[in-house]
Amino acid sequence: MPAKLRDSLPYWVTLAVSAYLYSVAMDIAAPGTGDQLGPDFWPKATLILMMATCVAGILKAMAGSRDHSPLPLIEGTPAADEHEPSQRYPWLLLVGVVLCLAYVLLFETLGFFLDTFLFMLAFILVGRYRRIGIAIATCLAGSLVFMFVFMKIVYVALPIGAPPFSHVSLLLMRLFGIR
């Protein structure tokens, strides 16, 4: 099998599956009402983006771009793995799994916003990032953006948490104009 075809094969398969799923999604008979998007919008939009990504991958593979060299960590310097063996931290995998389980188990109690904020912050800190102020700001912004997008734009009912944690979620919902 030619290298270009072999490199593009996963994209072709994913494109075919996405096209099939899009044809299935066309049978969803739940259009939006008035100025609200219906439940048929998001599956279709996601599949269209997936198909566009596959087409881009196919074009890249067919163009023969096979450069898999590591990118430099800082412009003008070689990638770290070219000169130094990378350190491995296998216990971090276990900690990451525990964090994911804790996220799921605490979801209903803490509510989406607090649980997501704490999960992201813990994950960043476990990943050995040490600039606490930037980590907190990033997690706060990310959690707020996720909450706004899911609850205000996509209309997903997310858990607000049990008292006293629910007070934070309810305050944020009022600030965002979410009912």
How do the strands and helices of this protein lay out in sequence?
Elements: H1 3-25, H2 41-63, H3 90-110, H4 112-126, H5 132-153, H6 166-176
Helix pairs in contact: 1-2, 3-4, 4-5
What would you note in describing this structure?
The chain has 179 residues and is an all-alpha fold. It has two domains: 3-66; 90-176, no CATH class. Helices cover 64% and strands 0% of the residues. The chain has six helices and no strands. The protein has helices at 3-25, 41-63, 90-110, 112-126, 132-153, 166-176. Helix 3 (90-110) runs antiparallel to helix 4 (112-126) and helix 4 packs antiparallel against helix 5. The radius of gyration is 22 Å and the shape is flat. The termini are far apart. The mean pLDDT is 85.
Give a short account of the largest sheet: none
Please write the string of helix (H) and strand (E) elements: HHHHHH
Q: Name the poorly predicted regions.
A: none
Mean pLDDT over all positions: 85
Quickly describe the structure.
With 179 residues, the protein is an all-alpha fold. 64% of the residues lie in helices and 0% in strands.
List keywords for this structure.
single chain; 179 residues; mainly alpha; 64% helix; flat
